[in-house]
Design a protein that fits this description.
This protein is of the alpha/beta class and 327 residues long. The protein is built from nine helices and 14 strands. Helix 3 packs parallel to helix 4, helix 4 runs antiparallel to helix 9 and helix 7 crosses helix 9. The longest helix is centred in the middle third of the chain and has 17 residues.
Length: 327
């Protein structure tokens, strides 16, 4: 048996990050792609050697040659397409953020069980050797008992790390759920839950300081995990370019691990010594995760990121962006 994929939303994000990987993973083949613009769907299919293309999502979902669907559209349509695919009995790999809200994500998670199929969320940094190693260091208590975690993401109004698209949907809350925070923070917050487990409490606030678009451009939040680890995060998307920063610091009783969520290294500080370890990132950054997803869909491995885990991240996002009374 093979996993025969269809992609809904074959836009720029699928050109290198994910799309080609579906044909490079054992037991996996990309059969069809869909985009509302038929000319662009056909162009993508021909350039990537994909046999079929569609301009209608329903036709791709009901294609009998397809048994798994990768949903790579903006978040506003994730629930609609995921529910339709699950109803059709197709396994689903859905991009982050998994939905516009925790409630929507939980609906998708429950539907996978109801329709007796499978759902995985594309929190693909879990599959990268860098973060697998950091998780291993934490589990081995390399820096002792964890005291606290501090994360700072500071970026200019138009950061280079944001994938370019024809429409500026990432700053339209109706389509993205919020602003650039909703686009980047799922990776950061998912790693935190992957490292530290269930959340006991989360709260925060968000502001629109620059007024450059309708979405908020600053989010501040705190988490207390059930294991007693406290987390504090600040993400601001309107600082001068020279002040850009992407750093997460995990401080323990015997040292500190620092890393960039969107970088390729970690720094271990212990016993007065520093060790910087760099990792090569894969050409198609989602390929390690897609390998795990294919194994799961084939019944040969666990779910690398469940719908419940995706909903947990959306729960944190919802709580971080709720306005405090009086602000």
């Amino acid at each position: 048996m093979k996993i025969n994929w269809g992609i809904i939303g074959c836009g720029n994000v699928t050109e290198v990050k994910s799309g080609p990987a579906f044909n490079k993973v054992a037991g996996s083949v990309l059969v069809a792609v869909m985009r509302r613009n038929a000319v662009k769907a056909e162009d993508y299919a021909k350039r990537h050697g994909v046999p079929k293309w569609y301009s209608n999502a329903g036709q791709l979902i009901n294609d009998p040659d397809i048994n798994a669907i990768y949903i790579a559209t903006p978040p506003g349509s994730h629930e609609e397409y995921t529910m339709a695919a699950l109803r059709a009995g197709k396994a689903v790999y859905v991009e982050k953020p998994v939905a516009l809200s925790e409630a929507s994500a939980l609906k998708m998670y429950k539907a996978a069980s109801e329709y007796h199929t499978k759902l995985t969320v594309a929190h693909y940094r879990r599959g990268l050797p860098l973060f697998i190693k950091i998780k291993e260091l934490l589990e081995q208590h390399t820096i002792g008992a964890i005291r606290f975690v501090n994360l700072r993401m500071l970026q200019p109004l138009k950061p280079d790390m944001i994938a370019k698209s024809e429409e500026d949907w990432r700053t339209d809350p109706a389509i993205s759920g919020g602003g650039l925070f909703h686009d980047l923070a799922p990776h950061q917050l998912d790693l935190m839950t992957w490292f530290f487990g269930k959340v006991k409490k989360a709260e925060g606030f968000s502001l629109n300081q620059a007024g450059a678009y309708s979405a908020d451009d600053l989010v501040s939040g705190e988490i207390l995990f059930e294991n007693g680890v406290p987390f504090k995060g600040l993400l601001c998307f309107s600082v001068p370019e020279n002040l850009s920063e992407d750093i997460c610091e995990i401080v323990g009783s015997e040292g500190r691990i620092s890393f960039s969520v969107f970088g390729n290294y970690y720094l271990l500080e212990k016993n007065g010594k520093e060790e910087r370890i760099e990792f090569s990132l894969p050409e198609h950054i989602q390929q390690p995760m897609i390998e795990q997803v294919v194994k799961y869909f084939l019944g040969k491995g666990p779910n690398p990121c469940t719908g419940q885990e995706g909903a947990d991240v959306m729960g944190i996002i919802d709580r971080f962006t709720n306005k405090w009374a009086g602000l």
